[in-house]
Amino acid sequence: MIRIYVIMTILCLYQTYTSFGQDCPSKQELQSTLRQVHKLLSAHEASYLQNLRSLRKKLNLLQSSTARQATKTGNGTCPKLEVPNNGRKLGKVLAVGHEVHFLCEPGYELVGSETRVCQESLTWSGQQPICRNINECASTPCLNGGSCVDEVNRFLCTCAKGWTGPTCQTPIPTFFTIVTNVSTSSPTSSPYSSSSSPSSLPSSPFMHPSRCTQFLGSTRCTCEAGFTISGRDSNLCIDIDECELFHNGQAGRLCVHNCVNTPGGYRCTCPPGYNLTRDSRNCKDIDECETRQHNCTRDQLCVNTYGGFQCVRVECPRIRNATYVKTSPVRCERNPCPVDNRACAQAPNSITFHYLSVVSNLSAPRVLFRVSAARVLGDTLRFGLLGARGRRHFTVQRSGRQTGQLLLVSPVQGPATLEAEVEMSELERRAMLGRYVTKVTLFVSPYSF
Ligand SMILES: *[C@@H]1O[C@H](CO)[C@@H](O)[C@H](O)[C@H]1NC(C)=O
Ligand SMILES: *[C@@H]1O[C@H](CO)[C@@H](O)[C@H](O)[C@H]1NC(C)=O
Ligand SMILES: *[C@@H]1O[C@H](CO)[C@@H](O)[C@H](O)[C@H]1NC(C)=O
Ligand SMILES: *[C@@H]1O[C@H](CO)[C@@H](O)[C@H](O)[C@H]1NC(C)=O
Ligand SMILES: *[C@@H]1O[C@H](CO)[C@@H](O)[C@H](O)[C@H]1NC(C)=O
Ligand SMILES: *[C@@H]1O[C@H](CO)[C@@H](O)[C@H](O)[C@H]1NC(C)=O
Which UniProt keywords apply (predicted)? Predict the structure, then answer.
């Protein structure tokens, strides 16, 4: 009857909410009904408990009488059993045929018999159990060389240098000791070992108290993105040093040049002469010549290099018996020679200046540039390196009937400035018709980007 009444009431409540409740009692009526139901339930509860108690009494009576009978007929009891340390014994009757059960406290495992029976021989079956501490260290939970200390129902990791966290899973950023300014009262104590209350926690942009919540008796502490719980002190969040953490990452370095750790993040920086690219990771050379950020004089040429610029002055050579005239900012041509002046005739017909900028450690071999004869008068063209300078790094090859190329043969580590002279000579029946020289200057930047 009561059950039906309750269901009716609840149905009406539902209807009231959905505003179809024409036949339902008013709010006050409902509440008084509910109170009555409550009372009824309480009364039922009381009588139910009373019944249980009387049932238990009867059961106990029955048990003791049968126990007495057992002692009479079985004539004897088994010896008293010990309660295992950190465990419990269930069952007090020591008469033949009776069982005793054993339990262990959390964190302990039972070794021996869980149940023992008093046998006819008045001895207990099985073995006396013990409660053994479960070894939480057995699964080697401490990472990165940390050592494990087994405690009841838990383990503690003592981390190797440079690691922190409950299982030593978090690397300790190297800056930590530098940035931290621990209170002057205990200048030698590390913030890790101090188990201070949150109010006295050291604070810096790289370190702040964690946010903890209690749930079902356990505490859960969390940190903002980019921060992690500091070691055993779950009250403290420390910044993750992404620069350190991903220094030799599989996916490449975070930054092409320099990584700066920031509270909760990081940023990349570039050396002078470079701007950070849109991806915030790479560095892009600034063309100082193009953007007029150079200070070269009017009679100088501005040559953009990776990370800077060079001011060069193109001057025509002074060779005995030959004179030159500048025909372009980077080209000198020999004036016509007097008849029978061999020294003049053997001097280069033209000298061209070539400036190249490369990054450090450029892979080699690599073609740096090609020279071609615009029109050929003679029957033979020869290409070669002039002088000993640059032979260590360069070589010249023919790459076509009228073309030769300058190759870089080995990587060069910057910063460096290398020079080479490439000569193209034209012959007709082994007689020299003309010599054309290209002076190459290679500016190698200190960086490989
Ligand atoms: C068991 O019964 C025998 C006789 O049936 C008696 O001699 C003995 O003392 C009894 N033992 C105990 C422990 O009551
Ligand atoms: C540490 O903090 C104190 C004041 O709290 C300040 O005087 C001192 O300069 C700080 N030291 C460093 C290294 O920042
Ligand atoms: C490089 O960055 C600076 C400052 O961020 C800016 O003023 C300049 O225009 C940038 N230069 C180039 C070439 O992007
Ligand atoms: C040009 O500027 C550089 C620095 O950018 C300086 O070292 C150099 O002396 C300057 N040269 C002249 C001619 O002012
Ligand atoms: C250089 O020129 C001078 C005259 O200007 C001439 O006497 C001399 O023979 C020339 N030297 C050579 C090697 O041709
Ligand atoms: C030069 O480049 C090679 C291959 O790319 C690389 O293995 C080497 O580490 C680099 N050396 C330097 C000094 O950057």
Answer: Calcium, Cell adhesion, Disulfide bond, EGF-like domain, Extracellular matrix, Glycoprotein, Repeat, Secreted, Signal, Sushi
pLDDT band for position 28 (cuts 50, 70, 90): confident
The mean per-residue pLDDT over the stretch 368-378 comes to 84
Residues in the chain: 449
pLDDT digits 0-9 by tens, 78-91: 999 999 999 999 88
Mutate to test the pocket of ligand 6, among 257, 358, 361 (most ligand atoms within 8 A of CB): 361
Q: What percent of the chain has pLDDT over 90?
A: 36
**Kind and range of the H or E element at 344?**
helix 342-346
> Could you tell me which residues come within 8 angstroms of residue 331 by beta carbon, excluding any fewer than 6 positions away?
350, 351, 352, 353
Is the C-beta atom of 76 inside 6 A of ligand 1?
yes
How remote is the CA of residue 448 from the centroid of ligand 3, in Å?
21
Task: Name the amino acid, one letter, at 142.
Answer: C
* The two three-digit tokens of residue 279, written as one number: 């991806």
Report d(CA 390, CA 441) in Å as an integer: 10
Phi-psi region of 126 (alpha: psi -120 to 50; beta: other; left: phi over 0): left
Cα separation, 442 vs 305, in Å, equals: 10
Give, as one character, the DSSP assignment of residue 144: T
Q: What is the pLDDT of residue 75?
A: 66
CA angle 171, 173, 177 (to 5 degrees): 130
With a Cβ cut-off of 6 Å, ligand 6 is lined by 361, 411, 413, 448
- Closest ligand by atom to 180 CA: 2
Q: Which amino acid is at 303?
A: V
- The SS3 assignment for 300 reads coil
pLDDT surpassing 80 at residue 296:
yes
Please count the other Cβ atoms lying within 10 Å of the Cβ belonging to residue 232: 17
Centre of ligand 2 to C-alpha 92, Å, is 68
Q: How far apart are the first and last CA of the chain?
A: 87
pTM: 0.55
pLDDT recorded at residue 203: 58
Report CA(393)–ligand 1 centroid distance (Å): 112
C-alpha 176 – ligand 2 centre gap (Å): 15
- In this predicted structure, what is the pLDDT of residue 211? 84
Q: Specify the higher pLDDT residue, 10 or 251.
A: 251
Rounded mean pLDDT, 195-212: 62
Query: What would the DSSP string read from start to end of 114-130?
Result: SEEEB-TTS-BSS---E
3-class secondary structure, 4: helix
